[in-house]
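Example record used in the benchmark description.
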Amino acid sequence: MFTTSTAGAETIVEHSAEARFQLDLHVPDAALAAFLPDGWKPNVAAQGPAKDANLRVVFIDRITINGPDGKPAGKGANSLVYLAAPVKDPSGANVQLIIGGLTADPNDAPGPFGNYLPATTHSVQRSTTSAATGPTLDSQDWIFQAATGEHLELRIRFRTGHRQ
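Model output (structure tokens):
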């Protein structure tokens, strides 16, 4: 008796090189609840770096975007920001619910979750300053605004830590 099985593989749609910055926040529970489908519940971390955070703002600079053949896909680059809530779905599984986002490339709207808006204003500037002595300093400025008034902006300067 012989049996055969097939290996499950996903089809590559694209690959990219990205720089991401995630900011974990706590917003009023009632404000977040307005975005959760029935049966979905917040899954707030009780400890660790994201303790008490119920909303994530994820800024993404997609430096290169290539199709499965290695050639640039779409415009070949994009910047976007989205809001994600750590939640439990009705089955109890831990997931992230993407509430919405803004994308610099209008062809990427409405996006993979169906709720991205094209940004009419968008800007990303990142820099790192390093010296032989002293800390390494990073600076990031992100600006996104949609024609309908949605606006996300982050300007942050920070000292990077050493990884062990």
